[in-house]
Amino acid sequence: MPRILLAEDDEIIRISVSDRLKQYGWLVDEAEDGLKAATMAEKQKYNLVISDIRMPGLSGISLLGRIREQSQDIDVIIMTAYGSIDDALDCLRKGAADYILKPFDMDDLIIRVSRLLDIQAVKARCASLEASCPLAANRLIGNSPAMHQIFAIIEQAAPTNATILITGESGTGKELAARAIHQTSPRRDKPFVSINCAAIPEGLMESELFGHERGAFTGAEQTRKGKFELADNGTLLLDELGDLPGPLQAKLLRVLQESEFERVGGSKSISVDVRILACTSKNLQQEVAEGRFRQDLLFRLQVIPITMPPLREHKEDIAELCKSFLREFSSSHHRTLSLSQTALNCLQSYDYPGNVRELRNLMERASVLCKGPEITPADLPTELRSQTIHSEIGLNLAENLAVAEQICLKRALEYCNGNRTESAKVLGISRKNLWEKLKGYGIE
Prior knowledge:
By secondary structure, the chain is of the alpha/beta class. It folds into three domains: 3-129, 3-Layer(aba) Sandwich (Rossmann fold), CATH 3.40.50; 141-309, P-loop containing nucleotide triphosphate hydrolases (Rossmann fold, 3-Layer(aba) Sandwich); 315-441, Helicase, Ruva Protein, domain 3 (Orthogonal Bundle). Helices cover 50% and strands 13% of the residues. The strands form four sheets. The protein has a five-stranded parallel β-sheet with strand order 2-1-3-4-5, sandwiched between helices. Strand 1, helix 1 (11-22) and strand 2 form a beta-alpha-beta unit. The radius of gyration is 31 Å and the shape is elongated.
């Protein structure tokens, strides 16, 4: 909920403006002079400040300067009964978001306030979308019983505000599951913010999560919002939560329980409405047993647990996954690609220690290296080709030799960039013999 600070020494105007602002559901704090307003702004987080330009103790311009030093994210509207064009320009140059002359129409003020708050919401949304763009085209895919179970849990849990802990091996799609939860929740139009707890140095993690005040440490030249503030009214994904340092686990637990925190170097409490999702590839029960993870935090996080299945347990989804990846790569590489049945059988016989992420990387490699419009076993890594020979044709020697010969021919052509004369030399056969074999196998 947006919070507004109203600084006005005229009691009648202050009460009138405050009552009108509250009618729109905004939280409004009042100050009868500039010094009190400055003190309140240091202790409380505000989205917007509306201030008279002339007040006892501290003028509106001086208050504007103090607020600009604290944060660049707080908009300030200056009110005055002694306005001129020069005064207005001076206020705008010093960082005011708007300038309004007394007496003003109350509806006009409401329109200005609404516009500034809407712009703030759009900025927060843009920051969230920019951070999540690399994953925007990806989604959970699968028709297997294992994936249907995941979809059923997401469908039930998404409409609630319950905290969800998503576990599973690396590459199983934990972050995509978190995104699916957000997209099917009532918060879908609000920010989705993600932070990788394993990728940020321990010394910077607190600032990344909770933000910092100006001067909190060397290099903190401006007040900066953390991930919790950026995700206000939306969803925050704590990726690889098992790597969160011990001291921050206690702070995170407090935020989960009280929905408020302080920035690094700050003293004022900031309240947020954030839905927490957490992902980890670690066994948190084992981490608790070994003293590296707080048990009370684990209890608080896994209100609803989701375990993503490894790809080897739902290989029936490989065909659909491959089609999706090929559509993506066909578009990015500007060519039409398909997958042969023998190559698909080969892919389905592999166990994928890297799960869906490994399958995607294999398909991208094959889509780049394949010579024709169809991906064949020859376009796959050696370890997968051997799977094809064993799984497709069993122990028949002639059929195994034929498959091996096709692979050898294609590798030679690839190595020689399609030059048949050079390919024949590499293979140790005549060019006529090579031509006959290629024709016999239907290799172009």
